[in-house]
Amino acid sequence: MSEFEGLVAVVTGGASGIGLATARQLAARGAKVAVLDLRPGDLPEPLTGFRCDVSSDAEVTAAIDAVVARFGRLDVLVNNAGIGAAGDVTGNGDDEWHRVLDVNVVGMVRLSRAALPHLRRSASASIVNTCSIAAWAGLPQRALYSASKGAVLALTLAMATDHLPDRIRVNCVCPGTADTPWVGRLLDAAADPEAERAALAARQPMGRLVTADEVANAIVYLASPAAASTTGAALAVDGGMYGLRPRGP
Ligand code: NAD
């Protein structure tokens, strides 16, 4: 399959988990893929890494300039970099609220601002944001993280509207708990990792965690010409967690 042949994609947070799976799939389907990450590390061929902290406007601008200088164009932006935070509203101070919103929300804004002039020149322009089931589900002890992903959902809808005239589609995916290094770190920190894994799996009706590749499938679909009529969509990849939620008596 080569539906991305001749196109250039940027994937933030593309050195691990969902971002890495997405970058690999886009490359397998013909895209030239630039991975922007705090720690791009040793990426598999043919991915190209660019060190970039999405919380720095100067680094984001420089990275997008470097990608376009290297590959000559930009067609697909996958805003995937994100960080977590635990606790209810009393669990994090102002500094932590600013830090997480800065990475998870303003990071996507910075990337989009830098990418838009290039995307406007593409006939296949698309942005896909990695949101979360946390935007909808009222997860326990995730107030800050949920607020950040609620903002990503609203940002996706606003951008889809604003950039209709530019013919830039903007969509998001909403993963449930996905089996990535991020979740691996959470499990390692739990008192009983196996029990914690089972509890996370049990809250998804399919009874298992979703895989990074399953989330990447959805991102790649939304970025692809197959989704040419889709903008402003939020696609859940959550083992039925949201769609099949208990709806009361
Ligand atoms: P991960 O920790 O495996 O990968 C995240 C990547 O983002 C890492 O390579 C990291 O270096 C990079 N990153 C972090 N901060 C950055 C910054 N400031 N600038 C640039 N890069 C940065 O995580 P993952 O599980 O693959 O999560 C990816 C996205 O999916 C996140 O937005 C997360 O909120 C979302 N998500 C994950 C799950 C899940 O269960 N894993 C569920 C819903 C949503």
From TrEMBL:
<comment type="similarity">
    <text>Belongs to the short-chain dehydrogenases/reductases (SDR) family.</text>
</comment>
<dbReference type="Pfam" id="PF13561">
    <property type="entry name" value="adh_short_C2"/>
</dbReference>
<dbReference type="InterPro" id="IPR036291">
    <property type="entry name" value="NAD(P)-bd_dom_sf"/>
</dbReference>
<dbReference type="InterPro" id="IPR020904">
    <property type="entry name" value="Sc_DH/Rdtase_CS"/>
</dbReference>
<keyword id="KW-0560">Oxidoreductase</keyword>
<dbReference type="InterPro" id="IPR002347">
    <property type="entry name" value="SDR_fam"/>
</dbReference>
<dbReference type="GO" id="GO:0016491">
    <property type="term" value="F:oxidoreductase activity"/>
</dbReference>
<dbReference type="InterPro" id="IPR051122">
    <property type="entry name" value="SDR_DHRS6-like"/>
</dbReference>
<protein>
    <submittedName>
        <fullName>SDR family NAD(P)-dependent oxidoreductase</fullName>
        <ecNumber>1.1.1.-</ecNumber>
    </submittedName>
</protein>
